[in-house]
Amino acid sequence: MKWIKIKLDFLNREIKFETIEEFQTLENILQVIKNEELGKYNQLLHRIRSIDAEFEVKEYRKFY
User: Fold this and answer.
1) Which residues contact 7 (CB under 8 A, 6 or more apart)?
2) What is the pLDDT of residues 23-33, one digit of tens each?
3) What is the rounded CA–CA span in Å between residue 46 and residue 53?
4) Is the sign of the CA dihedral 21, 22, 28, 30 positive or negative?
5) What does the alpha-carbon distance between residue 16 and residue 22 come to, in Å, rounded to a whole number?
């Protein structure tokens, strides 16, 4: 949630362009966020879900 707030604050500051070049710069920044940063967080989310699933299996086995 903190990451999302930081990115939204950044975008709210940056979405003030007067020329096509400024718009293209913003578009490039958004591509970087989409391709690099979001990918990192998706990997982290996948790992967290895997760990959670492993934990649930281990907890289930303790009771049976």
Assistant:
1) 33, 37
2) 888 889 888 88
3) 11
4) negative
5) 8
Residue with structure tokens 């966020």? 33
Contact assessment for residue 20 and residue 28, using Cβ atoms and an 8 Å cutoff? no
pTM score: 0.44
Quote the percentage of the chain above a pLDDT of 70: 94
CB 26 within 8 A of CB 12: no
* CA separation for the pair 29, 23 (Å, rounded): 10
Burial 14-34 (b: 16+ CB within 10 A, else e): eeeeeeeeeeeeeeeeeeeee
